[in-house]
Amino acid sequence: MTPWAGASAHTVDARRLTALALGTDRVAGEVVGAFQGAGVRAVLLKGAAISTWLYGDGAPRGYNDVDLLVAPDRWPAAEAVLRDLGFDLAMPGTSPLEEAPHARAWARGAEVVDLHHTVWGVGVPPARAWELLSAETQTLALGGGHVEVLDFPARALHVALHAAHNGAGGRGRKSLRDLARAADRVPVDVWRQAASLARDLDADGAMAVGLRLHPATAHLADTLSLPSRAPVAVTLQSTGAPTLAVGLLIAARAPGVKAKVATAARRIVPTPACMRARYPIAARGWPGMAIAHVLRWASLARQVPASVLAIGRALWSRARWA
Predict the structure, then answer these.
(1) Which of 12, 122, 174, 294 has its C-alpha lying 20 to 30 A from 226's C-alpha?
(2) pTM reported for the whole predicted model
(3) Residues 293 and 174 grouped into a single domain
């Protein structure tokens, strides 16, 4: 008989989420402790930083990855520590240009660390983002040690940005739940400080998009005098636009012509490792790789009409509120 035999489905699910979170906290404590030993300062962005803050009533909040923000110039040292701990890139052999522009995922079996050099939705350079976000932090006891987390205004901002990143669809369900809880628990003065920080980070448009995704926080966007218009890339991401549209905007926003061309080229012709990760048939020699490319191009072709429409709507929305 299992320890959960006879428990309701809701209780079993709550216990599963709690166990998942505790295991992830253990990994966070281990990694941050190793970073500290190597002289790498890291800030825990989500996980226990959110659950201890917004879920103090005992409601379960499951999470299975560790999001850590480090200074951009400390990324190589942080990656070396992760390798020493047995982590490898979640998609080994891929190019950084094929991954999210704000973080790279590292894995050790089922344990995942997302190593951030900035935060999604932030417009200032990563070094400036680190300077601002690391200036005001708090300490949280975790996994037998202590980790740095964002202070309350920065955490409130990150909750809004994360909601905008995930959108209002199924992927964003947990983010919107966090947002609703923040609406009940975060005083308006803290939201004002969050909005001020967002302006310094050039993230006020993305913050506004996130807040407007939930009825409980939509009014805050106006109360805080946040802009009605947002960067096109933020609008596309928050509305669940096709990956083709989002990829084109990522390439367009790369700094400098050389970076734009390199990003676009890598997204047009992915590395073999990326193809094998996304299309299992690509692992079956060159015939499988050829079939995978055909499948990919067919998928991209189907996305063209919706991508053009999504980009057009985002541009029109931005121009409308200019």
Answers:
(1) 174
(2) 0.84
(3) no
3-state secondary structure the chain: CCCCCCCCHHHHHHHHHHHHHHHHHHHHHHHHHHHHHCCCCEEECCCHHHHHHHCCCCCCCCCCEEEEEECHHHHHHHHHHHHHCCCEECCCCCCHHHCCCCEEEEEECCEEEEEECCCCCCCCCHHHHHHHHCCCEEEEEECCEEEEEECHHHHHHHHHHHHHHHCCCHHHHHHHHHHHHHHHHCCHHHHHHHHHHHHHCCCHHHHHHHHCCCHHHHHHHHHCCCCCCCCHHHHHHHCCCCHHHHHHHHHHHCCCHHHHHHHHHHHHCCCHHHHHHHCHHHHCHHHHHHHHHHHHHHHHHHHHHHHHHHHHHHHHHHHHCC
What confidence score (pLDDT) does residue 318 get?
60
Domain that residue 249 falls in: 241-320
pLDDT of residue 1: 44
Total domain count for the chain? 3
The model's pLDDT over 171-201, given as tens digits with 9 standing for 90+, comes to 778 899 999 999 989 999 999 999 999 999 9
